[in-house]
């Protein structure tokens, strides 16, 4: 029993230490549409970002975007532009800003803000303060997008 209590305690300590260097949605600083500072102290991992991009439960980016690198994947959407060569069009800060809240880049866009914490009056309790992606997932997706260059 004691073991379990200690394990839980260590887990809480560990996660609060990890939380400490995460920028909260309300604290994100935009420079025009761009967000120059990473949201976490841990560099994004492109391979993880690719999974988030495809996952219907997470980014679901593929529902609206395609890119040739994923031609063999399942269904992809054409609501948004193809992301081929997107890293040549936008720098890292701009890409991060588009994922966090694309409305600062494209007014009135249908692309969701993936790291926006505002609570709307009718937000269901379990979604209050929740973002679609975590800070680390945003960094991972940015890392993945940075690999999409025109060859
Ligand atoms: C509901 C559809 C939709 C979803 C889901 C979506 N986007 Fe978009 N996205 C758009 C649209 C539409 C645009 C073009 C901006 C506009 O005109 O509104 C866009 C623009 C972009 C751009 C700039 C493209 C360029 O070529 O300049 C990037 C980068 C981007 N999206 C990445 C993502 C990522 C990463 C995800 C998933 C985390 C995502 N989008 C999810 C619809 C979507």
TrEMBL record:
The keyword Electron transport does not apply. It comes from the Bacteria. Coiled coil: none annotated. InterPro entries: Cyt_c-like_dom, Cyt_c-like_dom_sf, Thiosulf_SoxX. Residues 1-20 form the signal peptide. It holds the Pfam family Cytochrom_C. Keywords: Heme, Iron, Metal-binding, Signal. One of its GO terms (molecular function) is metal ion binding. SUPFAM superfamilies: Cytochrome c. Residues 44-149 form the Cytochrome c domain. The keyword Signal applies. This is Sulfur oxidation c-type cytochrome SoxX.
């Amino acid at each position: 029993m004691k073991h379990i209590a200690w394990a839980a305690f260590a887990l809480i300590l560990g996660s609060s230490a990890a939380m400490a260097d995460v920028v909260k949605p309300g604290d994100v600083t935009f420079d025009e549409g761009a967000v120059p500072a990473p949201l976490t102290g841990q560099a994004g991992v492109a391979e993880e970002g690719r999974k988030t991009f495809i996952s219907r439960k997470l980014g679901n980016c593929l529902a609206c975007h395609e890119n040739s690198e994923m031609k063999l994947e399942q269904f992809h959407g054409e609501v948004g532009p193809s992301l081929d060569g997107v890293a040549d069009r936008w720098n890292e800060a701009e890409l991060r800003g588009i994922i966090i809240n694309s409305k600062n880049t494209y007014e009135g866009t249908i692309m969701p803000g993936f790291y926006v914490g505002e609570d709307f009056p009718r937000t269901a309790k379990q979604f209050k303060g929740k973002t679609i992606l975590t800070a680390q997932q945003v960094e991972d997706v940015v890392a993945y997008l940075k690999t999409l260059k025109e060859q």
